[in-house]
Fold this sequence. Notes:
alpha+beta, two-stranded antiparallel ribbon, 6 strands
Amino acid sequence: MAPPDAQTDAQPGTRPDPLQVATDRLLRAVDALDDAAYAGPSLLPGWSRAHVVAHLALNAEALAGVLHGVIEGRPVAMYPGAEARDHDIDVLAAATPGALRFRLHAATAAFADAVTTVPEDRLGTVVERTPGSDRTFPAGAVGSMRLHEVEIHHADLAIGYTAADWSPDFAVRVVDRFAPQVRATLVATDAGRTWEGGTAAPTVSGTAAALGWWLTGRGEGDGLTSDGELPGIEAW
Length: 236
């Protein structure tokens, strides 16, 4: 059985899968870029658009590798190490735009294949991000993890797709994920949701998308209001 948010073909009359929709949208956007645009800056400091595309490809490959390890009953960390991950992104980002596009398409296809073949009784298998790391996750979480990567980094490409284009459900999911990491009460004015931050915590209000974008360490809190100083957020 596929994990939540797995990339699968929707049957007639069913709700389209969020990850498949987001992935298809990303691939169309990347394919439509002029070759010269890959060298342009993304919204992530120090990263070009090519770096973002390279990361998205390598992330899909890493998650597919994790799932193959789960299927085969052998532990496979997502990345061999933080430095190796960063090095691989730099190397792939230097490839031609055509090679980057090919790698991204191949990686997303490999991920889609792997995510649909994990036995249901292995979805709880705990996987390490890097060997010996305390950052772990269950195999059943990879669909949700990949959805966050695709949607957030699509916006990072700075090619017209922004957090305001996220679906309401996804925007709330981003806030759900990152709200515990900030000491503030968060109010999503368009979703009727509040995340309590504790006594004396400032209250930060705005749309779920604006909150989510800020919580990932992006922007300057545009579109948000606060009754105190906005807490500093480290980029995700």
